[in-house]
Amino acid sequence: MSTRKASLTDKQAKNGTSKYVLERCASVNEYYDIAFKVMLLGDSAVGKTCVLVRFKDGAFLGGNFIATVGIDFRNKVVDVDNLKVKLQIWDTAGQERFRSVTHAYYRDAQALLLIYDITNKPSFDNIRAWLTEIHEYAQKDVVIMLLGNKSDMAAERVVKTEEGEKLAKECGIPFMETSAKTGVNIELAFHAVAKELKHRATQQPNDPKFKIHEYIDSQKHKSGCCKQA
Ligand SMILES: Nc1nc2c(ncn2[C@@H]2O[C@H](COP(=O)(O)OP(=O)(O)OP(=O)(O)O)[C@@H](O)[C@H]2O)c(=O)[nH]1
């Protein structure tokens, strides 16, 4: 398996011949009201880069898998309740040998999307180890969301939706299954996190608390796409 990074043109993206190089200045001049750092975590090959690229560009990076080296980021500005919220999204390398590099970034993140692959049991079993790392290195009040990615691969599924739900419930964190390939729940995951962060940052003492679990449930039901087998 290669760990080379290569730049990606639209054509390469369509052909699935290369992996993204994250462009640091992509949205540097885009107007925003408030900004937050979000990190993508999880084992190698669960689809972190693909989730980011789907959210940022609406494209799917198919083809040969090229592992991320170290860490990089992309920005996306989303509208939340009439505010422009900039998400600076850090894509980390899932491989063990880069762990010490990524640890250094945990403490700056306000939200963590912890991702496993529904077709890869070890990636699910490792979620508890990831949570231990998060508790060691991240801010105490960091927003955490669990994502079971590759929900389009029904035939290869080895982790049931209920197992993801159960683990998330035990840990008190929101959960959804996503597909970077089809786009299912990708926007919702980032929007729910942006909404939670915006509420925390702007909330007045008497304002009602934002309930991320309820928001996700209401949006899933609206789109009717919560569980893709
Ligand atoms: N079918 C399907 N394939 C996916 C999905 N997301 C990612 N993949 C594939 O899974 C492989 C790994 O995806 P990456 O996004 O590179 O994985 P990663 O988690 O960033 O891996 P590291 O950079 O090593 O941490 C690639 O071959 C992708 O095309 C998905 O939702 N559905």
From TrEMBL:
Predominantly, its location class is membrane
Q: Which family does it belong to?
A: Belongs to the small GTPase superfamily. Rab family.
Q: Which UniProt keyword terms apply here?
A: GTP-binding, Hydrolase, Lipoprotein, Magnesium, Metal-binding, Nucleotide-binding, Prenylation, Protein transport, Transport
In which organism is this protein found?
Oryzias latipes (Japanese rice fish)
- Listed GO CC annotations: endosome; Golgi apparatus; membrane
Indicate whether Repeat appears among the record's keywords.
Answer: no
Listed under catalytic activity are:
GTP + H2O = GDP + phosphate + H(+)
Which PANTHER family does the protein's record reference? LD44762P
State the InterPro entries in the record: P-loop_NTPase, Small_GTP-bd, Small_GTPase, Small_GTPase_Rab
Q: Which GO terms describe its molecular function?
A: G protein activity; GTP binding; GTPase activity; metal ion binding
Q: What class of enzyme is it?
A: hydrolase
Q: Does the keyword Transmembrane helix apply?
A: no
Q: Which PROSITE patterns match?
A: RAB, RAS, RHO
GO BP terms in the entry: protein transport; regulation of exocytosis
Q: What is the lineage of its organism?
A: Eukaryota, Metazoa, Chordata, Craniata, Vertebrata
User: What SUPFAM superfamilies does the record tag this protein with?
Assistant: P-loop containing nucleoside triphosphate hydrolases
Signal peptide range in chain numbering: none
- Stated EC number for the protein is 3.6.5.2
What protein does this entry describe? Answer: small monomeric GTPase
- Which cofactors, if any, are listed as required? Mg(2+)
Membrane topology of the entry: Lipid-anchor
Q: Where in the cell is it found?
A: Membrane
Domain of life of the organism in this record?
Eukaryota
